From TrEMBL:
<feature type="region of interest" description="Disordered">
    <location>
        <begin position="78"/>
        <end position="101"/>
    </location>
</feature>
<dbReference type="GO" id="GO:0046982">
    <property type="term" value="F:protein heterodimerization activity"/>
</dbReference>
<dbReference type="GO" id="GO:0070476">
    <property type="term" value="P:rRNA (guanine-N7)-methylation"/>
</dbReference>
<dbReference type="InterPro" id="IPR039127">
    <property type="entry name" value="Trm112"/>
</dbReference>
<dbReference type="Pfam" id="PF03966">
    <property type="entry name" value="Trm112p"/>
</dbReference>
<dbReference type="GO" id="GO:0030488">
    <property type="term" value="P:tRNA methylation"/>
</dbReference>
<feature type="compositionally biased region" description="Acidic residues">
    <location>
        <begin position="87"/>
        <end position="100"/>
    </location>
</feature>
<protein>
    <submittedName>
        <fullName>Trm112p-domain-containing protein</fullName>
    </submittedName>
</protein>
<dbReference type="InterPro" id="IPR005651">
    <property type="entry name" value="Trm112-like"/>
</dbReference>
<comment type="similarity">
    <text>Belongs to the TRM112 family.</text>
</comment>
Length: 147
């Protein structure tokens, strides 16, 4: 399960829907796996406005991943200026229209797209229910007494 996915999930219990503590789900006993993926500046730049920044920072802290800045970077802050501005033929897929990728862009790419939870649990901060993650797949089916 990619860490990007956790940024869009909350506890499945109805009682937790009204509380802020149900988001984000906190990893417990998580076994991480790094799956290398080619750097995609365009994807990171486009997904950034949809990411709940504080939840992502909390997740990085819980898992011991690289610390992210206190505030979400603006899309222009993800690239260093390109000394050859105006050169045609360079697409954003390679180095970006704005220039070379910054360390922040590389860290975001690593956290969002390359880091996965292979095994472990996701715990709701509101009710404490634990969702098992096995072979990278989270089980969000609730037992009948919790539905």
């Amino acid at each position: 399960m990619k860490l990007l996915t956790l940024n869009f999930l909350t506890c499945a219990r109805k009682a937790c829907k009204a509380t802020n503590a149900a988001f984000p789900l906190h990893p417990k006993d998580a076994e991480l796996e790094i799956v290398e993926v080619e750097l995609s500046p365009l994807f990171v730049r486009n997904i950034l406005p949809r990411v709940e920044w504080e939840a992502l920072r909390t997740l990085c802290q819980d898992l011991g991943l690289p610390q992210l800045p206190a505030t979400a970077p603006e899309p222009g802050e993800l690239f260093t200026p390109n000394p050859s501005d105006g050169v045609e033929g360079e697409g954003i897929e390679e180095v970006g229209e704005e220039g070379e990728p910054t360390q922040t862009l590389k860290d975001l790419h690593h956290v969002l797209l390359e880091t996965t939870i292979r095994e472990g649990k996701l715990v709701c901060g509101s009710c404490g229910h634990e969702y098992a993650v096995k072979e990278g797949i989270a089980n969000f089916l609730l037992p009948s007494h919790l539905v």
